[in-house]
Amino acid sequence: MVTDLDYQKETLPMLDLSLLKFKERDMLEGIFKFWRLQDAATFDISKHWESRLRHHLGTRYDSRSGVFDWDYHMKLHEMAEIVSSREYQGWRESGVAFQLRDDAPYQYSNRTLASGLITMKGGERVARRGYWGDIVNSPYLALGLESDNKDLFHKTNSKHTKGSVDVSVWNAQWLLGRLSGVDTSRATWERNCLLSGRLMMMMVVIASRHRKADSSKKVAALHSCH
């Protein structure tokens, strides 16, 4: 699409790519093709995240849980009380900020987080692909601290009953609703959020069943070969 302006104007008329140079369009095309690759080994975000942590923490890496706890209580908690220790420390360890459920498997890396960087190795400039984003502050600061829905900030025994993840999801869904032009009234939005949550869980269950079925077929095929 980025290299065919006529097709782009027909399918996405709200975008204007005419001012991009040919080199820039080729670079965008390369990025989009990289996003579509099926081979998980081309970008293993878990390894890149661990590498960033090791470089950032140095000799403190083996005691990183204590570092994360100190950063949370001494730096973040006072400014962002809604962010729970479990949310923050879980993200610092794995890089996963928003989970469907605690035991949900994450088998595919988010390639939109990949970027290139020119580094020096042996006195030579070397191009590297990796994750060079935030590993300290957390993505909760963007949408997870404030909301018009005050029920999200209810406390019991001086503790929040909801977390920053809940606030972030609510705000993101509300913003997407406004962009889509749908009814964003409180009652309608609560019903839509509930339905979307149920739908998401159904999709997870269905996907899990498909993975199990595919695994069973592969095992059966191996047995038949032997």
Automatic annotation (TrEMBL):
Coiled coil: none annotated. GO terms for biological process: axonemal dynein complex assembly; motile cilium assembly. Residues 15-186 form the Dynein assembly factor 3 C-terminal domain. This is Dynein assembly factor 3, axonemal. It comes from Geodia barretti (Barrett's horny sponge). The lineage of its organism: Eukaryota, Metazoa, Porifera, Demospongiae, Heteroscleromorpha.
